Amino acid sequence: MNMKVITLLTDFGLDDFYVSSIKGILLKYEKNLNIIDITHNISPFDIKKGAFILYSTYKTFPKETIHFAIVDPGVGTFRDFLYMEKEGYHFFAPDNGILTFIYEEYCPLFKIIFPDIWIKEASFTFHGRDLFAPAVGKFLKGEHIEMVPKPNPVLFEYKKPHKNKKGEVKGSIIYIDRFGNCISNIPYEMVKFGKGKIIIKGKEIALWVTSYKEIPEGKIGILKGSISTLELAQNMSSLSNFLNINFGDEVIYTPI
Amino acid sequence: MNMKVITLLTDFGLDDFYVSSIKGILLKYEKNLNIIDITHNISPFDIKKGAFILYSTYKTFPKETIHFAIVDPGVGTFRDFLYMEKEGYHFFAPDNGILTFIYEEYCPLFKIIFPDIWIKEASFTFHGRDLFAPAVGKFLKGEHIEMVPKPNPVLFEYKKPHKNKKGEVKGSIIYIDRFGNCISNIPYEMVKFGKGKIIIKGKEIALWVTSYKEIPEGKIGILKGSISTLELAQNMSSLSNFLNINFGDEVIYTPI
Amino acid sequence: MNMKVITLLTDFGLDDFYVSSIKGILLKYEKNLNIIDITHNISPFDIKKGAFILYSTYKTFPKETIHFAIVDPGVGTFRDFLYMEKEGYHFFAPDNGILTFIYEEYCPLFKIIFPDIWIKEASFTFHGRDLFAPAVGKFLKGEHIEMVPKPNPVLFEYKKPHKNKKGEVKGSIIYIDRFGNCISNIPYEMVKFGKGKIIIKGKEIALWVTSYKEIPEGKIGILKGSISTLELAQNMSSLSNFLNINFGDEVIYTPI
Lengths: 256, 256, 256
Known about the structure:
Three copies of one chain form a homotrimer. The first copy, chain A, has about 260 residues and is of the alpha+beta class. The first copy, chain A, has two domains: about 5-150, S-adenosyl-l-methionine hydroxide adenosyltransferase, N-terminal (Rossmann fold); about 160-255, Bacterial fluorinating enzyme like (Elongation Factor Tu (Ef-tu), domain 3, Beta Barrel). The first copy, chain A, contains five helices and 15 strands. Chains in contact: A-B, A-C, B-C. At the A-C interface, strand 2 and helix 2 of A face helix 1 of C.
């Protein structure tokens, strides 16, 4: 018999009892469960960062994995709790935009109907434990959970990278990792890799490399990043600190 | 065959090799083990915080779960290592007060007798790995571990919330979470929810809400918290920072 | 059927999607997998700290455990990815010195040959996910992975503690833990425990104790530490901060 795999992504941090309480409830339904933490260090309420991280990692897991994401500024209000299926992966998340990068119109999408008794007994502050986790637990165990189709999920707007007639591509920084590497949303295939320059924060960069190591000290390199978009980086140093680059900063690619 | 579930709660942090060494030892005894981290970020030696977190989450786990807590300022000295059973849960912890909120007089309570060879070979600084974990490992595997009844565990004193004739309740803040929400020890059932006011830090609060979202910006709300006590909070902002509220601060409820 | 045990040690931190992506890939190959985090909080690129932590904990795990360590400043360059076996434990790591404290000349040591298709499709920045994890996954599943003997691994130099004719031992601090305890590389058996003095940072210490608790406030004690070397510590206080002790600082033992 195989273990079932479920991931957790939250903004609960690792100091409080919130993460373990969710895990405890899930294990009440199914003990043969491999619970994998994606991260619990999303800044409180930062749905966009959560959305990006979920998008960047969900496919690395085996099919049938359940991805359970709780970044939920709306706890206690009447946002829906969603179930979505895509490419053999199962997603459970509040309806607040965290599925933005993953949702496609063809995806089966439902909202969960919670039993009255659950709602009555739930705390006002911890729906993750009192409503969401039991629903996911029932799903894990193969029990029926009531759900109805939900056509229009909440999605947040984000500028997709845009190419003009000259071949210029305007995109933005969508992630900065712990090493200070700056990940853009400009797909590798959208540019001529190795040709042209990048402008960010008024600075021109034209050093195309295939590894961090090739970047001389103090210089900035352009790489194919791990989600197949252009990434800007320094060698063993934080580019984010060096140029004060933040989430959302504009990135322009100009071909030669 | 089901996985066995064990939780770990320590003040070891996540940077050193201490947590993994405990897990390694446990896995030597039982490989089909689902080890769940409650937290390892208890401030060094903060038994009271560990006690509160253990209390707040232990029941969310399935029956037969083993809760193994090591916050142990006394490592190397002769405090006992306890085994306690309550409501189908198993607890292992040093005898230093960490079971304070969970212990009841009817709970079977024992101290572990370690084999001489273990004591002889143990390091002076890491009893968690050299004595506690092997004992828990034997228990997990169903092997005999020597233990004798232990009548009076170390418990730390804490003021239970008190109601006077006028219906006023005096309690205190027993937890502040990463969001800055301030959790009191005044049970929800001890007050008339929605009626009356709370005084904390000289400030009167009379805004009773059922979700964080209902609290207008800059205001403070009173909610039923996740452990069914009164909780004070702001909406997407840290109340703890705003009013400089700390563990132990007095909270007074006055009915209308 | 038993769960297979694998540990992970990285400098990826817990905020990004890097750790979960590695775990996802491993689970694609083998679902019945107990993945244990040693730590992901190694300072970026700090191979020496990673090497020490791996060395300090690997033996606490059951035989057949796979230890998978990725601290890899050289990602994207042509350092090898190694497989080593020692005492029934399996190690996978880039060839950059992280096995320094574990490697012995008698250890079977190989470098992995990655299939061309993997190399072609790998990102430039995340070999851990795109090359290393799939190779480890195949190994886990019992599938063939191509490897060839690799005689001379990269090892970093470190001074082993040295004893002179007078019985003096010169060593150094090789680890400082979260409590500020300072762990030296002088083996317990190399000195007369309880006799003599330690000099560090110009300060003489002659208080030999068997537990932190025995050290009076403000004083410094010498203990047998958890990896059986001499450790210097204060009681519930950070010695590292107190004396500004850092990794590499010299420690001299002089017998009476």
